[in-house]
Every structure is written in C-alpha cells, then in structure tokens.
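Model it.
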Amino acid sequence: MTATMESETPHLRGCLVVFEGIDGTGKSTQIELLARYLRARDIEVETDFEPTRGPWGMKVRQAAQSGERLSVEDEVECLLQDRREHVKNFIEPALAAGKWVLLDRYYLSMMAYQGASGEDVERLREMNEEFATIPDAAFWLDIPVETALERMNARGNGHDAFEKEDFLSAVAKVYSEMEMPWLHRIEADGTIDEVQQRVREVILQELGV
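Modeled.
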C-alpha cells in the first residue's frame, strides 16, 4: 500500500536589506519609506536596528551616550554577541517565514566604526560572516560629514562619543573602500524623495520588486 503525502508549498525565503552610513544620513527615514513601498506590494516587512536594545547592545550604546566608549576590544565582543542573538532570534526566523527584514546598521557598521578605531576591517568581516546572514542588498547612504553633523546639531540631542568630525571622516573612508557585490553607494545629500527613488531603483534591478 502506498501512502499519499500532501506536499506543502514552502515559504519563499525573505530578503535582508541593510542601510548603512554615519548618523545623520537619513537611514531610519529611508527604511520607513521603503517598508511602506514594499507593504503596498503585499510584502511582509519587519524593521529593526543594531546595536539592539538587548543587554550586549545596550552596553555599547550607554557607554557612547555617556561620552566614554568601551575599549575597542570590548565593543567588538559586545557587538558580536548582540548580533549573534539578533540573527538567531529575529533575522533568520523572519527571513525563513518569507518576510523582508530592513535593518538600520548591521556588521558593515562594525567594519566601519571599529575599523576606523584600529581593528583590521577584513578580520571584522570574517568574524561576522562566520555566523551572520549575508544581506541581499545593502545601501551606504553617503553624505559629507559636515552635512551629517549639521543634521545632528539640528536634532538638538547632543553628540555621543562616536560623533566627532575627524572620527566620522575616518568611518566614511572605510565605507568608501568596501567592495561587496551587494553593497550600493547611494548619494544621500538630496531630498528625501530623491534618495528613496535611488534606493527603489536598486531594489527593482537587484531584487525584482
């Protein structure tokens, strides 16, 4: 006797899209607009950010907000632990369920910020890619550091320990030297709608949406 098994249609895996850049580039705004665009096309979307609000991410955040960073070694360790939990508990389950995940910062931020602090950039990439999901697309929103600082000043929230002009210039330089086929530089020194249109053009070309 042969048993007939009903086959289930598997979920198509979702896409991981990451927004990178120094603060003041408009990452959160662009994520919100892209999420709205995708949801209008009946795509389930989850948005999040790194470092997370978990205990490891908060150690880095609280130190920076106090004006005193952790040691670079401690930052790397905390951020790796934070990302491991994020990938396991949020990113991978969402992707497996067919959702698109839009992130404000991911491991390219570690390469840029801790790389600008003296760590080997390629070593940081290797450490992350041992466990972290590779993005389907990443956007480096690029604006002059002076413009970013003007925007941060306009917000009136003060600057954390990372938000110093010389350091941010070094961070931007590391971003500019990254070469991944899925990383796209977006000129973000324009109107919000202009930047979003540039992002959507890449999404359409690379991911067909």
